[in-house]
Give the backbone structure.
Amino acid sequence: MKKSEKSKRAKLANLIMQAPLAVWMIAFVLAPFALLAFMSFMTKGPLGIIQYKPTIANYKEMFNPVYATVIKQSLVVAVWTTILTVLMGYPLASFIAKVKAKTSSLLTVLLMLPLWVSGLVVLYSFVILLNSSGVINSFLMSIHLIKEPLELLYNNFAIIVGMIYMFLPFAVLPMYSSIEKLDPGLIEASKDLGAGPVKTFFKVTLPLTSPGIFAAVILTFIPCIGYYMVTDMLGGGTSLMIGNLIYRQFTVSRDWPFGAALSMVLALIIFLMVFIYTKLGGDLDDLGA
Amino acid sequence: MRKKLVSVICILTLAVLSLCGCGSKQESTGGTQTGQSKEINVMIWDSTYPDEVFDQFEEETGIHVNVSYITNTDELITKMVSGENEFDYVDVESAYVKTFVENGLLAKIDYDKIPNSKNIDDKFWGAVGDEKNEYTMPVSDNIYSLIVYNKETCPIEIKSFADLADPALEGQVCMINSTISLYGTALESLGYSADSTSEDEIAEANELLGKIKKNVKAFIGTSAMSQLETGDCSVAFCYDYPYLMMDKNNWDKYGVAAIDSGYERSNGFVGIPASSEKKDEAEEFMNFILQPEIQAEFAQEAGQASLLKRDLMTSVMPDGYYDNPYFNMDPGIEENSWHIAIDDDQIAIMDKYYTMLMGSE
């Protein structure tokens, strides 16, 4: 068989292998995104029907302080969750990276377990655990440690606990990957040169594992900013997140063009985060791209 | 270049076609559809129709029922307006009847084909927007937005909606997050109409809700039962009273606050979409479900009293069914209740204020 024919066949095989993914991406990512972008410039008609009259009013509306506050609230929750998740995830990732291979695999599986269960089920479990007559309060009262139930549900504490639980695996895995790749010889060298554990951590370990930390920040922040189930179910829904706002435009308000514009802004925030990440030297492969 | 363009168009067409199958979940009930010439497609709220009813209907009439469940009325409206409707029988919330009728989405009902409609209690007829009952027929008992309180733990006597802002209730209130129920009730409590489209009045209602929000522990989507039962809240503004009363242990535990401004009332209606080609079959189904024996199954499914006249129902209901406090509520609640009719302009203003309310500390 000639070389050129072989090369043609290889190309064809390559094309066949990639086609399903390309079709999938076009059908379920690019096409809906294009539709969303198009819809965001249209006008809301009677009964919520989209009128094909181009307008930028939906984007102008976002400068209304009402919506700016909601976007700010979502950013605050996402930033706090990301900081706390990464701070808690880093020691865990270090631990998993240092233990024996078998234990490490087991811990990784345990870490992934919550992702195998529906998020809704997980959140309902938290409601059962944290409510006034829930498992934790009942136990503490039964051992006479407390007289009145603790307020564990429908507050910021519950939101933070729920958010960290939901996003911890996304933060730990990229950090684990970075820490595992770290050459132990460099730590030894640092020690030999007289640096203590703290100095070694800040001068050697942290800089060398920073790609993993960046990836963890991105992977936590992105899903977190649009996620409103935790604030609704564990926080009591007393504040609105950008996800709620978008959902309400497509249902209660029947204002699909404005909902589409809000979705576009959310997507832009995410793109911006990824852009900053790559500019800081982050690798898209670490995000699973 | 042209080839590329054609490829892109083909792929996009493929993408659009592949999305055509996406939609609401439809369940085929009982039997197979093979060889069946008669069938109707119904779109109803989940957990309101006993599953057996569809099989019984098919057994009696030979008409197969394909059931879809509504996730929200707006989705149904969007389908019907865009011409995608494939339904022959749809549940319509009382608040939306006016919208459906004004926009010509429903066909006129022929009551000659529904003789059992005479069984329906007079109090359920006449939805706002269809006072002559030409397009909609009642299908469920009234549901009220009520202030339900735990008799042991609620620290104050609640006499008005505004009392929910009393500092003694800090962190003890749970509320439904329905924009129309919240703003409608707040408007009525301020002496305005729940149907108001005045921005000033809605802003005033928003101010009242802002004061109440300081006491709210949780805003919930549909049910406040668990928050009351776990003791997280001692008061709830909710629709849950009938469900709460399904448990006998709760009969003496919870009470309903009598408030001056009245109570939002909603009940389910059904209609036949104007585009339906199975109007006769849909009317046959309507007639079927209005038999007392069938209504007994409906009532027990939803913990309600049934919309049929009480004398027709007592013989078919289990002994003691009507001892439930929900069926013996103060008649003043019904007399002092009001319907809301959704209006696009009103909901746009209310939703803007709702966003403001939830965006505030």
